[in-house]
Write a structure and sequence with these properties.
By secondary structure, the chain is α/β, with parallel strands linked by helices. Helices cover about 25% and strands about 25% of the residues.
């Protein structure tokens, strides 16, 4: 099983959404987990993980981790080529290095060159930036490239983003 996470911040709260699906090329068959947490940490440049990691870990409590093959996060696994951890790296450590993590970011992080891949999907001229831990970076990039959808953002990641921002 594959999990994908994203978090949206509003009014001192955080809404985290997780999509659970079986195959990377899935476009319709998925489960959704959501949780809203109050009093989230303030954003600190370079320490984004301190804000988002607790939200992901809290939502993971609703999921049987023994069935998880890989987790996709909205962000970076590494922040530089010395492998300084970003959100994905810290999540990998919190999960005892047992579940591979793929970071998919929409904006570039210039301090990392070797440990990321730029992925152009569809007819977009703007790449997605892929980082990974616990799985080969080339394989991780191929997995994201194989995801359903003809646009820059894979169908399920676009749906996750929409659900995350849907406040009701």
């Amino acid at each position: 099983m594959i999990l994908a996470f994203d978090t949206y911040y509003f009014d001192q709260k955080a809404k985290t959404v997780c999509l659970e699906f079986a195959e990377f090329n899935e476009n319709k068959n998925f489960n959704v987990y959501t949780e809203i947490i109050d009093n989230v940490e303030e954003y600190i440049p370079g320490e984004f993980y301190k804000r988002e990691l607790p939200c992901i870990l809290s939502l993971l409590n609703q999921i049987d981790l023994s069935k998880v093959d890989v987790i996709i996060v909205d962000g970076f696994v590494y922040l530089d080529d010395d492998k300084k951890y970003g959100l994905g790296g810290y999540l990998y450590e919190k999960l005892n290095r047992k579940i591979p993590i793929i970071g998919v970011a929409k904006t570039n992080f210039a301090s990392i060159v070797q440990n990321k891949r730029a992925l152009i999907r569809g007819e977009s001229i703007k790449p997605l930036f892929i980082t990974a831990i616990g799985i080969d970076l080339e394989i991780a990039t191929q997995k994201i490239e194989s995801m359903h959808g003809e646009f820059r953002m894979p169908t399920l990641l676009k749906e996750m983003d929409r659900l995350t921002k849907e406040i009701n």
